[in-house]
Amino acid sequence: MDNNSKDNNVSAKTLGYPYSVFCDKKVLLVGAGGIGCELLKNLVMSNFGEIHLIDLDTIDLSNLNRQFLFRKQHIKQPKAIVAAKTAQAFNEHVKIHPYHANIKDPEFSVAWFRNFDIVFNALDNLDARRHVNRQCLLANVPLIESGTTGFLGQVQVIHNGQTECYDCNPKETPKQYPVCTIRSTPNLPIHCVVWAKSYLFPNLFETTAELDTSIDTSASDAEQVKEIAELQRETEELKQLRNALTSEDDACRRIFVKVFCDDIERLRSVPDMWTHRKEPTPLDFDELITKIDSDSKPWVQDRRIWSLADNLAVFYDSCQRLRKRVWDEELKSRKDIDFDKDDKDTMDFVASAANLRAHVFGIPTLSEFDIKQMAGNIIPAIATTNAVVAGICVIQALKVLTNGTRESMNIYLSRRPERVFHGERVCPPNPFCQTCNFVSFQLPADISQLTLGEFISKVLQEYLQYSDEISILRNDLIYDPDFDDNVDKPLSELLVDAQPANTLTVLGEAEGDSVETLERVPLLVEFVPLDQEHDRSVKFVLPETQIEIPKKQSPEKQAQEAEEMNELKEAVNPEDKELIVLDEETIIIEDELGESLENGDVVSASRPLKRSVTVEDDITELPAAGTAVKKGKLDNA
Amino acid sequence: MSFHQNKYDRQLRLWEAAGQSKIENASCCLLYVNNVGCECLKNLILPGIGKICILDDRLVDKSVDAPNFFLDEEDHNKSKVECLAENLSRLNPDVCIESKKANPLDIISSDIDFFHSFNVVILADMLPKIQLIKLTNYLWNKQIAFLQLRSIGFNGSIRVCLPDCTILQTQNDASLDLRLNMPWAELKEYSKQLFERESKDRHGDIPFVAILVHGCSQLETGNKGNPSSQRKDILRNWIKTQMLYADEENFEEALSNCWRPFQSTNISSALKTIFDDINCQNLNEQSSSFWIIMNAICKFVECYHCIPVSGILPDMKAGSSEFVSLQRVYQQKAKEDALKVKNYVQKNLKLLSRPIDSITDDEIFQFCKNASQARYIKYRKIEEELNSPLLTDLASDNESLVPWYFAFRCFDIYKERYNSSPDASLTSSIHKYEEIACEFMKSLGQSPTQSVCNACREISRSAGAEIHSVSAFIGAIAAQEAIKFLTRQYIPLNNTCLVDAAHARTESFSF
């Protein structure tokens, strides 16, 4: 272990304790962004043995105010690779393995997650967070989950069966807007921004853009049918204009006239639509163009609120700039342009189009700076909050790795100077959580010989005491009492493509005849190879200790909740059923963190009142540097 | 959008261009290079502070500097400040980083004016009492912010000091005042009109502000003498009768804001503190524009019994045209109020014989807009704290982190006396530390409690060494406090934050 600490003089004397805890540990760090860079530095300096770092992003200029492992010359390079290289220079003894990849790629299987002693999440989106949460639960590896927004932040400790998981508390999903509000009856600036970014822009500049044809054609009345038909026609027309972009010089004018005049006229003619709403006013291109000062460049002033003529000037100019980029001279074909908040041309186009639409509908217009925040779902981010959160993450990891998960705290940063943050003892899992309520076990088996039928009768029924009512799922259903086609097949045949790998999910009831429900939580059986020493006649080896599969908690309650959900769904106006997702990748973390209440306390979003907020000082004392607890390791250090 | 603006985009969204330019024009000095000091500097360099000067005359010692990310093993025996300046400068080429190879003690005794040009001075270690008092008194007189950081094992503290601090933009949205307790004629008229519209179809577009204002004026007659809780119930019932169907969102919003019209005053205690301060009462030649405008706002409050309308409306459920016209009503009132304040400001300026345009309309408008959030914080001198820390009843509270404070104070005495840190591996060292603790507690008129002894033991366990993650955490909090001082936004710490990282706790005290 000699070469494992940055400097042995130090570790031997004082910091030996944390150093010795970490030095033989293998960690996974998911994300090399704001928190990720800080965490990587802390992990390197805390002498973790092996750090695997994964991020699929590349470096952007706007990262440099906080992601301190990156420099200007690194822009556009992969974050994971650069971060690993920069951090490696500071401690050559630590093994850092960077991956420029998506954590959701199949190669990062549950088995792969099992390689790690602890996982750190430093992500910026709900989807990946939930994915890592699931993988860690399945792999039974502790996870330190973290997030920040502006001055707020939080750290959560997650461990299968011991604490709440990420999904135990429902999370705010990205805001969605009814399609009719976006396309016909906007009344807020955000509606115009969503229209410009998620409808107009992709339809014009992305050939592969899924034209949103999934409009609810089962509209209840004739008016709606007609309106939907109109909208579809408008989308078709946009498609034609997209072609005009590369071929016709007056394409920008034609786009303007179509979306801010012709479509609006058509909308005005929809009967009954405007009896209770303010009618939109179409814009006249030829009249407006005369008001533009040809020397003005309003787009350089992104904090000023542009006039109507300014917006036209920006629209026209950015549209011309984008037109030039649409045609690839080398390939002699058109190419796609994706909206990117940091791509000035696309941002100008979306900002001006949103404002022009706002003018049409009498909605207040905004500065480009503000529209950028909405269109890009920009979350304010500063170095200090990330550093505070990353510091807490490692201290929590130290506790998890020494005292176990139950004694850890979840930490919430507040903006109040009186209390920098507050901690809450971790809560036990939510018994109704759909994600973490399962039992998993590994069954050593020769899957080329063991058939599904034998597995059901010998393992599930005989050993685990399941009744006949069993369903088995791979990704799809492979067995239930009415579907026994597969019982004679060997498992090796059935497990191809199973997700997670080599795993089947068993749903069923306990054997018995009680009036109470006997339904058990899902059982995940992962088939692992048999030890070499077993002779070939052995098909599987049962675990030495009996496996307890708890019954599902209060199904009445769950049914009731499901019913309430359905009622809620029905209450939604039928015309609102079609939704536009603003941005699937990004979520507004602030919602998730909870918001500042009147008294300034930051609370967690969902089930805060049920738990007692404890800041009690009763965590097991951390052992002293060089005390007997980890003496063995220290001596080696 | 410039390169510069793009680079700082994510923080501009918090403290805006005005805050950013204050940071960029600021300079900061660090006394002593250690891990916690470097982590703090890193978090000032990244957001683009103007200039940094690092002061230390020691050489890199790998046995001490190992947990420091910005010093390398290869730097052993080289000048600390030079190695550090080189490594830190890579973080942000916009920042000017200077190093001065000198012992801070020498500079304090023979060249104290060296510090006069800085906006923030950060002390990352302890100083002997005499030098600490000399330095902090000097900075106090020059109105330079001072931060002292401490990171020992799992514990630490941050002490901030400045004579006083006025903040207008505390970014505290919770205190937004809509003056619903004293609605003015135009607001009442606007609200009435919305209810008198013929069509009931736009019922869901009426903003909650109008619902509350109209409800109150409907119920005004005959209810005046009743206590506010009773009137609130009457209003609540009225709102319910006005709802066309259950859960009508704008009316739900009105119900949850029902308390607003019955707020007895919209003048916060923080604002009262400002008005009552001598600086506000007695303007003089030295008075800053903060006090001149606050004096004017105070006169406005005395005359109209409310603070100027800010003109800001929170998001609410409403039709867009209704919302826009409501916004207009509020903005118009904000403008009127600001003009009244401007009159008082100009009278003040005349009395002070200053040019009438030395305070701009824009500045006055900003003050009126943010008046409800304004804060004035007075700090305690370090010298006063050293001689008699304000302990109130906290010292005897076993739950509090105060024992750590005593342990830190004794740590400093120990270091000054024995020129080393208390070290748990040496029995004699612990005894000496505990002796100091007894002595010190007695000098404060307290008896040394078990919790103080425990804190001393825990601290001596690390023999003065830092744990990287704990230092990273403390350095970041300290940098955030420095940024609050520089931007004059957000409410800064007053005056000490104690950190117990092992138990994930922090607590703040005004010692």
UniProtKB/TrEMBL annotation, chain A:
One term under GO cellular component: cytoplasm
Q: Write the record's keywords in alphabetical order, separated by commas.
A: ATP-binding, Coiled coil, Metal-binding, Nucleotide-binding, Ubl conjugation pathway, Zinc
Which segments constitute the Ubiquitin-activating enzyme SCCH domain?
330-372
- THIF-type NAD/FAD binding fold domain segment(s): 25-407
Q: Where does ATP bind?
A: 31-36, 55, 63-66, 79, 124-129
User: Which family would the database say this protein is a member of?
Assistant: Belongs to the ubiquitin-activating E1 family.
The UniProt entry annotates the active site at C180
Name of protein = Ubiquitin-activating enzyme E1-like
Residue intervals passing through the bilayer: none
Query: Quick one: which pathway?
Result: Protein modification; protein sumoylation
Which Pfam families has this protein been placed in?
ThiF, UBA_E1_SCCH
Question: Does this UniProt record's set of keywords contain Metal-binding?
Answer: yes
Source organism superkingdom: Eukaryota
Q: What Gene3D superfamilies does the database record attribute to this sequence?
A: Ubiquitin activating enzymes (Uba3). Chain: B, domain 2 (1.10.10.520), Ubiquitin-activating enzyme E1, inactive adenylation domain, subdomain 1 (3.50.50.80), Ubiquitin-like 2 activating enzyme e1b. Chain: B, domain 3 (3.10.290.20)
Q: Name one GO biological process term.
A: protein sumoylation
- Subunit structure comment from the entry: Heterodimer.
Name a GO molecular-function annotation. SUMO activating enzyme activity
Q: Does the keyword Protein transport apply?
A: no
Q: Which residues bind Zn(2+)?
A: C165, C168, C433, C436
Q: Which gene encodes it?
A: uba2
Annotated coiled-coil positions are 221-251
- Give the matching InterPro entries: ThiF/MoeB/HesA (IPR045886), ThiF_NAD_FAD-bd (IPR000594), Ub-E1_IAD_1 (IPR042449), Ub_act_enz_dom_a_sf (IPR023318), Uba2 (IPR030661), UBA_E1_SCCH (IPR019572), Ubiquitin-activating_enz (IPR035985), UBQ-activ_enz_E1_Cys_AS (IPR033127)
From TrEMBL, chain B:
UniProt pathway: Protein modification; protein neddylation
In Gene Ontology terms, what is one molecular function of this protein?
NEDD8 activating enzyme activity
Any single GO CC term annotated in Swiss-Prot or TrEMBL for this entry? cytoplasm
Which BP terms in the Gene Ontology apply to this protein? protein neddylation
**THIF-type NAD/FAD binding fold domain boundaries:** 8-498
InterPro entries, per the entry: APP-BP1, ThiF/MoeB/HesA, ThiF_NAD_FAD-bd, Ubiquitin-activating_enz
Query: Iron-sulfur: present as a keyword of the record?
Result: no
Q: What keywords would UniProt list here? A: Ubl conjugation pathway
Its biological function?
Answer: Regulatory subunit of the dimeric UBA3-ULA1 E1 enzyme.
PANTHER family hit by this protein: NEDD8-ACTIVATING ENZYME E1 REGULATORY SUBUNIT, UBIQUITIN-ACTIVATING ENZYME E1
**Family, per entry:** Belongs to the ubiquitin-activating E1 family. ULA1 subfamily.
Please give the name of this protein.
NEDD8-activating enzyme E1 regulatory subunit
Tell me the organism: Schizosaccharomyces japonicus (strain yFS275 / FY16936)
Q: What is the gene called?
A: uba5
